[in-house]
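Researcher: Please predict.
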Amino acid sequence: MVSNRCKLAVKDELKKLGLHFVLVELGEVEIMEELTPEQRTQLKADLLLSGLELMDDRKGILIERIKNAIVEMVHHSDETLKTNFSDYLSEKLHYDYTYLANLFSEVQGTTIGQFIIAHKIERIKELITYGELNISEIAWKMNYSSVAHLCNQFKKVTGLTPTHFKQLKDKRRNPIEEIGNALENNIETDTP
């Protein structure tokens, strides 16, 4: 589960089965009852219909916990991460980072670092699109050592500089007040 919508979907499915939950968080659920094999099968099927998966194997569960910790930190936290991700993940998940990194690479075919960068870039795109922060503020919020580092990584991943991305975003949208004017201007220039 990587969003609040996912959490709501899981809560709904648990309620449909008459199960009482203590906790529904990103990637984990704690229920009061012991699941019967029939309930487990039904829950698994219902979650699949919602695009979610009931994880049974320990490695798969740990991978999901790693992903959820990263998503939570990058997308859902207003805190600025003052420690590095390896320490953060080790502390949060209670595993040695080397073990987590090796397991993640083995199962996912990519590194934790690459997964983090991909999510940071998506978050940066979101922050640029909102337009509430400038690039310096975004670099600080996303814990980059400098604006140059953020810009270089952004360009490496997207092929665009943050400024070019912002310009493209600005070109895609026209203020409502200008839509009619733009049409009138185009009509005036098109008529002989």
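Model: The chain has ten helices and two strands.
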